[in-house]
Amino acid sequence: MIRQATSLDAARLADIHITSWQAAYADLLPAEFLDGMSAERERRTEQWQGWLSTDSSQRSILVAVDGEEVVGFAHTGPSGDKDLNEVGELYAMYLDPSRYRQGWGSQLLEAVSEDLRRSGFTTASLWVMTDNTNARAFYEQAGWAADGKVTEMCLGVDIPAVRYQRAL
Ligand SMILES: CC(C)(COP(=O)(O)OP(=O)(O)OC[C@H]1O[C@@H](n2cnc3c(N)ncnc32)[C@H](O)[C@@H]1OP(=O)(O)O)[C@@H](O)C(=O)NCCC(=O)NCCS
Description:
There is one protein chain. This protein has 168 residues and is of the alpha+beta class. It has one domain (2-121): Aminopeptidase (3-Layer(aba) Sandwich). Helix content is 35%, strand content 34%. The chain has 5 helices and 7 strands. The protein has helices at residues 10-24, 31-36, 41-53, 104-118, 133-141, and strands at 2-4, 60-66, 69-78, 88-95, 123-129, 145-155, 157-167. The protein has a 7-stranded mixed β-sheet. Strand 2 (60-66) and strand 3 form a beta hairpin. Helix 1 crosses helix 3 (41-53). The two termini are 21 Å apart. The model has no long low-confidence stretch (mean pLDDT 96). The site of coenzyme A has 19 residues, from helix 1, strand 4, helix 4 and helix 5.
């Protein structure tokens, strides 16, 4: 099941964010950076609480739920890119590492598209690390395509990223 997140989910969102980065990016980011994330649970929980308590008609945090357990999330809202107008963005999407490749991401991504459409967007964008071949394959099979825009994300070291877009 997919539902909107509530402030009660904040700590779980922080946990999933941290453990999913540590599992999925072990070959992409410095070990020191990833290990350091374990100490950030409290700060990240507060950050999620802040986002969850901010009223915004266009921002949304969706969670995938298996029984009682939140197994993943997607965070969406208006694109922050200066060259994109009226485009919705998938800011982040992470699953608990024990749930990869079981269809949860596809369910979430479908709900993301519906949610962005409901918010009035007809196009969506996202940024993904250039070397994150797993996520790129996931987005591409769902109809997303690289639009040629690239950037460097500063995560202790500069990490190249590519932008994808998709008509909703
Ligand atoms: C990327 C992610 C959200 C995908 O969700 P998921 O539930 O694992 O993906 P699904 O099971 O719905 O996969 C659907 C299809 O996408 C493709 N796909 C998904 N993961 C893939 C992988 N690791 N390698 C290649 N193709 C993949 C496949 O075509 C898959 O269909 P199949 O399993 O029948 O072959 C999830 O794996 C995740 O959280 N990964 C780590 C974090 C991350 O990279 N997030 C994206 C940041 S931009």
